[in-house]
Design brief:
- InterPro entries: ACT-like_dom_sf (IPR045865), UPF0237/GcvR_regulator (IPR050990).
- By secondary structure, this protein is an alpha+beta fold.
- The chain has one domain: ACT domain (Alpha-Beta Plaits, 2-Layer Sandwich).
- Strand 2 and strand 3 form a beta hairpin.
- The radius of gyration is 13 Å and the shape is globular.
């Protein structure tokens, strides 16, 4: 991918921790055609939080932006 065709998106989330949450999120990111450039994950008490820097084509970033709220509601 050439630098001009690469787009970026930062996503953050906070919620109750449960087994498999990271796997679910990373699979969804990958299925949308995005890459995880950097991430930070933390446990705050019983809460799970993360911030991720994603990259991808314009179409991939648009897809993750439109589908992530629904995926988040499932979690």
């Amino acid at each position: 991918m050439t630098p001009s065709s690469q787009h970026y998106l930062v996503i953050t989330a906070l919620g109750a921790d449960r087994p498999g949450i990271v796997n679910t999120i990373t699979r969804h990111v990958s299925s949308c055609g995005c890459n995880i450039e950097d991430s930070r994950l933390a446990m705050l008490g019983d809460e799970f939080t993360f911030i991720m820097l994603l990259s991808g084509t314009w179409n991939a970033i648009t897809l993750i932006e439109s589908t992530l709220p629904l995926k988040g509601a499932e979690l």
